[in-house]
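[Q] Does anyone have a clean structure-token version of this?
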Amino acid sequence: MILRRSDGVWLNEPQRWAAKGDDLRILTDKATDFWRETHYGFNRDSGHFLGFPTGEAFTADLRVHGDFRALYDQAGIMVRLDAHHWVKAGIELSDGRAMLASVLTNGQSDWATAPYEHNASDFWVRATIANGVLRLQVSADGKSWPLMRLAAFPKANSYLVGPMACTPERAGLEVVFSTFRLTPPLGKDLHDLS
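[A] Here you go.
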């Protein structure tokens, strides 16, 4: 079992990975990424993603330990409908520092970043989908969950959600994912940070 579940499906399974108990350890392959068209003009769907099926509404969160060293090294959570409709969110190395980063793709990708002021090698990330709305949160301690992003997201009967990691410029980012939880949507007020 991976992350204490047996229903995960790999998209671009990494050559090197191991699962033990609630931990999933991966080492990224070379030149992996998720991106569609905007600014760069290319499409990439080669990043590593372990997707677990959901219903039409859910909250998912997980803990991420990553050794981010090179430009665009990234790891976090992904919610995916198909190659044209998805979101990835977590930490990404850009301009020499760890950034909170999310890419929302609805035919084309956008990219939103902000400096991350905590320990980027150990963080939690959460995605909630309900009623056509995506809510992304990040936590430095697994207790306080500030808002990272709020956006419209396509309604569907089911999604895939789970850990994601990419290294567009290299191979070899080591990431450990743990404490994965998939529940009905928390239904908390937007400013409830618990």
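[Q] Thanks! Anything notable?
[A] The chain has a mean pLDDT of 95.
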